[in-house]
Write a structure and sequence with these properties.
Length: 397
């Protein structure tokens, strides 16, 4: 029997008999005497709806039966099957748009469609062509708009498989093991195609098609688009975003890109300047610390990060420091410590570093001359300084 979704694609509700209930890996399901719910196939996702009060969350064709997967198990008997019409009509718009795009792509440009995917946000087809020029995309979109305005009838009928051989029918091939007659979907004067999906009744109901772009893949080209109600939804999302950008950058749509470009250029310049100033600051700080009194060098920097500590330690090495030092810093990204020693200064940094890390509730690692890490807390920093002084005291004895 031809199911109701194919006989009457606009039917939103149907009294049915639940003829079987069972469960498989995908969950509990019901098999019905008839259905207005399209099972996933041919690039079109499954319909959603309700069987009585139970939500239908997926519909799959398994062998000869159509399984309606439910949030909870159903019972056999009579029930009202309701279609989530908003979702379905959206699918009908996207799917009919696909027929139209495929037909124009093949007949006008000679690009064959090799696959179709109806996505949650946008849909796409794969075309057997390496790349598509922007001007061709514009032309394709305009031709589609013309056919939409012409409100051409979209009809379906069953035909004998032999009719396929006539050559006038477009087909991406029948499902494996297909037997019996085939379903043909026709856009008057434009296209005749084998298809089991659901479609709008005239091209006018597609509303609009907006091509979004292409990407190359496996020697072909993927073409993305939105159709129908999605065009307005996408435009609304773009407009909301554009309004925010206008506000943030205090400019108009026409000038926002230029403003962002120049702000990014200035940001890059400022970052280069900060980098240079930081290096200068590290050099200056290192000089100041090196001239300080004491057996070791120790300093803490608020608002500095691990990189800043490293550059000071590197400067110290460049200054051929004769002492060891402990530097700590605290910034938004956490607390850090760096332990270093001058060249030729004998100190087992790895052992002391590990002990310091434990003391500061952190961890770290490094080389023979520099040990660095992230500190969990700098509360016991004075003890860490003492520990380092003590180690140096032992060394000189
Ligand atoms: Zn179709």
């Amino acid at each position: 029997m031809i199911p109701a979704f194919e006989r009457e694609p606009y039917l939103r509700e149907l009294e049915v008999e639940v003829t079987g209930v069972a469960e498989d890996d995908a969950g509990p399901y019901a098999v019905l005497s008839d259905t207005v719910l399209y099972p996933e196939g041919g690039g079109q996702p499954a319909d959603h709806g309700y069987l009585g009060a139970l939500r239908v969350i997926a519909v799959q064709r398994v062998d000869s039966e159509i399984r309606h997967y439910l949030e909870n198990a159903a019972v056999t008997g009579s029930a009202t099957l309701t279609l989530d019409w908003k979702r379905r009509f959206d699918h009908m718009q996207q799917h009919t748009a696909q027929h139209l795009i495929t037909a124009i792509a093949a007949d006008v440009f000679g690009w064959e469609t090799t696959s179709f995917h109806l996505g949650v946000r946008s849909s796409d087809i794969e075309l057997a062509i390496g790349s598509i020029a922007d001007t061709d995309l514009v032309s394709l979109e305009e031709r589609a708009a013309t056919v939409i305005h012409e409100a051409r009838a979209v009809t379906s009928r069953r035909a004998a498989p032999e009719e396929l051989a006539s050559g006038a029918i477009r087909s991406r091939g029948l499902p494996e093991g297909h037997e019996g007659d085939v379903r043909l979907v026709e856009i008057a004067g434009i296209d005749c195609n084998t298809c089991g999906g659901t479609h709008v009744e005239t091209t006018a109901e597609i509303g609009a098609i907006k091509l979004l772009g292409t990407e190359s893949m496996r020697g072909g080209t993927r073409l993305r688009w939105v159709a129908g109600t999605r065009v307005r939804a996408l435009l609304a999302a773009h407009e909301t975003r554009a309004a925010s950008l206008r506000e943030i950058f205090e400019t108009s749509d026409e000038e926002v890109l230029q403003v962002v470009d120049s702000k990014l250029a200035r940001l890059k310049q400022a970052e280069r300047q900060i980098k240079r100033l930081r290096a200068e600051l590290a050099e200056e700080t290192a000089r100041r610390l090196e001239s300080s009194e004491g057996a070791i060098v120790e300093a803490h920097f608020d608002g500095a990060d691990a990189r800043f500590l490293q550059s000071i330690a590197r400067q110290m090495t460049a200054l051929r420091t004769s002492r060891a030092g402990l530097l700590t810093a605290t910034s938004d990204s956490g607390s850090f410590f760096v332990l270093y020693r001058g060249t030729g200064f004998e100190l087992d940094l790895e052992t002391i570093g590990a002990r310091l890390a434990t003391l500061l509730d952190g961890r770290g690692g490094g080389s023979a001359e520099l040990f660095q890490g992230k500190a969990g807390s700098l509360e016991r920093r004075p003890e860490a300084v003492s520990l380092l002084k003590e180690a140096i005291g032992h060394r000189s004895r």
